[in-house]
Amino acid sequence: MRRLLVVGVVVSAMVVVGGVAVRPLLRKKEGGVPVATVFRAYLADPQARMVAYSPEPSVLDDPKALRLQLEMLRERFDGLSLYGCTPQTPALVAMARTLGYRAVLLTVWNPQSESELATASSIVRDESTHLAMAISIGNEGLMQKRYTLEAMQAARKELLERNTGASSVEMTTTEPWWLYLKPESRELREFGEFPSVNIHVVWDTDIVDPALAAIWTRDRAEEVQRAVGRPLLVREAGLPGGGTSPRESVSLQFTRAMQAGFWRSWFALQRRPPLVAFEGVDNAGKHWRDFEGSWGLLDGSLQPWPAWAAFSRLGGDAKPDRMPTRP
């Protein structure tokens, strides 16, 4: 296997990511050579805070609208989790860098897509000396049978080869938490430099109390971490702010109060794994379930929902919200 190069240049015990110093975690590769893991160092920083960002196509094609969304999210978050490497993704990542984001998790939605692999590789070359970066090779594609583990492994090898001689990134993949616990999932548990899991109360349990949902989410993450034997990232978690439960055993209408209750309860927990808040902005284009477009902490006009207030301004800034939070 080719040598995986690190994000940025490690010249001391600290690395500057987005203007903030972080201490790289060190792991040993073959031959005992220490390698800095800057993205995981970012995740280990108690001040780090990531949000899932999946804007509507009209926003992606409008630089002014895109900047407004990224500026608003930057008040509460300094890392982005993105979905798919499209022709617009390089400009999005570059804009995030100029706005002071510290980290980006890219996703190659289809590991067999030459265009996505090429786009991901070009972003790494252009941005990985400025941002803590990682790439998720796929997202729930094994569960959905959209691709195979062999396709993921081939894509990882291809990205390593493309970026030989330039700064590279750690890689992962993302599947639902329960798939990692299956006896036949050994290769999934071992894939990449760290596991990235989706944990959704909405799909996997009848829990309706937001506080219990937060505890359940944390406990499932710890269960997977024990099974995998490595620290992990919770790639998606939370509650939607509208729509009905997809579970036949539950008659439940999601509300914005429940969504806010989940996040308040999450931050009250004593133990919390690194987590990506799902998600930043409502997306009306997600309509395959009636709740899918209602996960945002902000609505499409950037008006905050009650859950927004659960996330303090980064840096302890006590200034009021740019716009009032709804009751």
Please outline the helices and strands:
Elements: E1 15-17, E2 20-22, E3 25-28, E4 34-37, H1 38-44, E5 50-52, H2 57-60, H3 63-74, E6 79-81, H4 89-98, E7 103-108, H5 114-127, E8 132-139, H6 141-144, H7 149-162, E9 170-176, H8 186-190, E10 196-198, H9 201-204, H10 210-228, E11 233-237, H11 256-268, E12 275-277
Number of domains: 1
CATH topology heading: TIM Barrel
Shape: globular
Low-confidence stretches: 1-13, 21-36, 316-325
CATH superfamily: Glycosidases
**Which percent bin holds the helix content?**
25-40%
Question: What is the overall number of helices?
Answer: 11
Average the pLDDT over all residues and give the rounded result: 87
Oligomer: single chain
Give the biggest sheet. 8 strands, parallel, barrel
Percent range for β-strand residues: 15-25%
Judged by helices, strands and strand pairing, the structural class is alpha/beta
Radius of gyration: 19 Å
Please tell me the CATH architecture by its name.
Alpha-Beta Barrel
Please write the string of helix (H) and strand (E) elements.
Answer: EEEEHEHHEHEHEHHEHEHHEHE
Number of strands: 12
